[in-house]
Each structure stands twice: as C-alpha cells, then as structure tokens.
Amino acid sequence: MDANVINPFIHATSNVLETMAFVSCKAGAPYLKNDDRATGDVTGIIGLTGETNGTIAVTFDEGSILRVVSNMFGEEIVELSHEVSDAVGEIINMISGQARREMEEHGRVFQASIPSVVSGRGHAITHYSDGPKIAIPFTTEGGEFTIEVCLEY
C-alpha cells in the first residue's frame, strides 16, 4: 500500500467535505477490500488513466450523504433522490481533482473520466482494473462512508 497514492485521497476527501458541506470526517485505517459489495447506499465512481489505470469510488450510507447534501444545499434533504445522486457525482469529481493535483506534485499524472453514480442497498462496485482495492473508511456525525482506490501496478 503506497502512502503517496492513498494519502492524497484522504486529504482531498476531508478537504472537499469540510469546504463544500462543512462536514468534518475522520479517516479510519485503510484495508484491502476483497469483494465488490458497496458498504453504503449511494456510490460515485470515476475512472483514472495516465501513469496507470484504475478507478476510485466513494460510497456513502444514507445518513452521511443526507447530512452532506443538506449542508451543501442549505436545506434539509430527507431522502435519496436524483439531486443527491448528482451531488455524489460532483463530490467524487472534486475529490478526484484534488487528489490528482496532489499526486502530480509527486510526479504521478492522471486524467479522470466522467463520474457515474450507483445507488441502492447492497449494490456492487465494479472497478475496471485488476489492481488491489484499498478501502478507507470515514466517519462523520451523520454516518459513515468509504473511499475505494483501485489502481493497476
């Protein structure tokens, strides 16, 4: 597990949620994920190409994403909707952009695809590379979410 790859995603995630939604989050210990089952209810996925290929995903449980989106929109959001899905796509896009900028400082250059969003309890996350899936769990006051980084090496 290369900290120069994982840390930019931890930093970007914390920064995006604090800046865009005024939500503090705490990262847990990264671990190797061995299945495709989502840990939450709505997932944003974005592909990466460049130095290597891979995908990153952010999966929110309902409580955490409703808190994040409510703060972003400045009004209480009480159920998952198309607007929530759109916000998740924007969040993964911003996380990807900030993480890629930090990785560029270490000489690692990546381009990102257009994000896609999948929702529903128990949905699957398909990573389009054979690399290891590194999952980083986060906790917030509203609930939990997980970032998954899967890059070929």
Automatic annotation (TrEMBL):
Keyword Cell membrane in annotation: no
Pfam families linked to this entry: CheX (PF13690)
Domain of life (superkingdom): Bacteria
SUPFAM superfamilies registered for this protein in UniProt: CheC-like
Keywords: Chemotaxis
Domain Chemotaxis phosphatase CheX-like, chain residue ranges per copy: 42-139
InterPro entries, per the entry: CheC-like_sf, CheX-like, CheX-like_dom
The name this protein goes by in its record: Chemotaxis protein CheX
Organism of derivation: Desulfoluna limicola
